[in-house]
Design a protein that fits this description.
This protein is α+β, with helices and mostly antiparallel strands. The protein is 38% helix and 25% strand. It has a 7-stranded antiparallel sheet. A two-stranded antiparallel ribbon has the order 7-8. Strand 5 and strand 6 form a beta hairpin.
Length: 313
Amino acid sequence: MTAKTKKLPTGNTNTSFKTFLLALQSRICSEFESLDETSRFCTDRWDRNLGGSGCSRVISQGDVFEKGGVNFSHVFGSEMPPSATVKRPELAGRSFEAMGISLVMHPKNPFVPTSHANFRLFISKQEGGGSVWWFGGGYDLTPYYGFEDDCIHWHETAKKVCDQFNTDYYPRFKKDCDEYFFIKHRQEPRGIGGIFFDDFNEEGFDNCYSLVCALADSYLEAYIPIVKRRMSEPFEKCHQEFQQYRRGRYVEFNLAYDRGTVFGLQSGVGRIESILMSLPPTVRWVYDWAPAPGTEESRLYTDFLVPRDWAAN
């Protein structure tokens, strides 16, 4: 999908989406705090003057979440960064405005998967010319130990929302997610995917806005039941070591391929603490390691990190 030049609708659309995102941030943090009674999100509001502002909320060293962050940012720039014009060179040199929410939750228990979500609106403007706008985002799941009912619930939740708008959306967004969250130098997926879309401005602004808000609202519905189901599972040091080993893949993807990370670093208006919030607190790299055949660690690779239609039923 490539964004086409379309006029923004009249009215305070930016303000409305910003209000929605800030309310979503508060709701997500409250839900996670209700699960993790030993830790609370700290709030860090930041301002780049004319470059934009944001609010980073971070939780750490909890009984449920070892580290997590839910960021809101609203940034401006006089010139599009290279990462944003690879597919649309005609936008090079234009000013831009971007707002969104981005979150990553790294659980303490290895049987609880890491989750990631982001939802954003991007507007490129040219003096005396038209505007290009598009939405992007989605959510994906990175388990360390595979449970089929968790994966099915995650994908079925996303499919249910997509189908309310267009039955073509879920298979398309799932395919895009599988292709995007793929670690090319490892030739393996980061996790079991979910949904991902970019350059999305189909069927008018109102349709896109409603879809993105509905999907953003469904993130908690997709993730919270999984956390509750697994967070009290007993685990041993070997499980934690495998979790830390697999977290290395998360770091590799985010630093090498993640568009949001690259955009934040290239734009000059990003805030490094917020950009790198997604990285886990502890990680292990073991030289030429491979799981023993027949183990639960091996099953992650053979049964879960392979293309599957999790929402087939």
